[in-house]
Specification:
280 residues; two-stranded antiparallel sheet; 1 helix
């Protein structure tokens, strides 16, 4: 399957490339002195996704999006983000990452997904999407020209949707089966981040976040855990504009009882990320 950058990622890369091209006369900016930081990036990860969707009064089967539904485990996704340093040791940041995929599979066993039971030999089309939006506040316990060490807390907002449809079976018989589920799943997170500035041109760093929580009936009706880890290196041109490479790992385990999502969702990815940055 050919994968193309989304319009948002293309626009983000284009805008940052124009800024870099126009930066020849810009004054340099030491790392940590910026007020705003903008990021546009592209993920090239490998995924693993297991899901169980329950119907009205029934428990669904556990399915793997790759093995059971034919969704490609290797895909790419867009990243856009910003960070505002509103005081020397205080930062607020948010990123948006978007992934979507489709697949086709002829079932070799009967599977119950949501309110529908898909029979053997059903030809099933699957559409899946996931948006990840972490919003964080960071306080730097240590900050100087070479080192910055901070604690973070915030909300990791996850929006997931899954649609399956079968119109025929392998013999060509007519079927009319469809199940559609989606949910917005905000989870708190706590973490640490460390940045090492080797010079005005080179930086590297690591960060990690984790949280596990249960929400009671009448609030979010969900329990789950997530972890996120990242290591990166960045090269800056004239101190303001740069290019980076990172390795990201993320895992979300969730059980939920919501209007359009009742069941469990286990999702993980890891892989490289390429990005362009602009600092002001």
């Amino acid at each position: 399957m050919t994968k193309r950058p989304s319009a948002a990622a293309t626009a983000g890369f284009g805008a940052l490339a124009m800024l870099i091209g126009a930066s020849a006369s810009a004054d340099s900016l030491a790392p940590g002195d910026e007020r705003f930081k903008l990021v546009a990036g592209w993920f090239l990860p490998a995924f693993g996704t297991d899901v169980r969707l329950d119907g009205d009064g029934s428990t669904g089967d556990d399915v793997n999006l790759g093995d059971d539904l034919g969704v490609d485990d290797d895909q790419s996704g867009a990243l856009l983000g910003f960070e505002w340093r509103f005081a020397d040791r205080h930062r607020i940041g948010a990123t948006w990452s978007s992934f979507s995929q489709s697949g086709n599979r002829t079932f070799d066993e009967e599977l119950t997904i949501g309110d529908e039971t898909f029979p053997v030999e059903a030809v099933v089309r699957t559409k899946w999407s996931l948006d990840l939006i972490p919003i964080t506040y960071s306080y730097s316990f240590i900050k100087n020209e070479k080192h910055e060490f901070a604690g973070t807390f915030g909300i990791h907002w996850d929006s997931v949707s899954l649609n399956l449809r079968a119109d025929t079976n392998l013999s060509g018989d007519t079927l009319d089966l469809e199940t559609d589920h989606s949910a917005d799943l905000p989870l708190p997170l706590l973490g640490l981040r460390y940045d090492r500035h080797f010079s005005d041109s080179w930086s590297a760093g690591v960060s990690a976040s984790y949280f596990s929580i249960e929400f009671g009936e009448g609030t979010l009706d969900a329990k789950g855990s997530l972890y996120y880890a990242r290591a990166y290196a960045e090269y800056r041109f004239q101190g303001r504009y740069g290019a980076g490479i990172a390795v990201d790992a993320f895992r979300l385990d969730l059980d939920a009882s919501k209007n359009r999502f009742t069941g469990s969702y286990d999702y993980d990815y890891w892989g490289p990320q390429l990005s362009l940055t602009a600092r002001f």
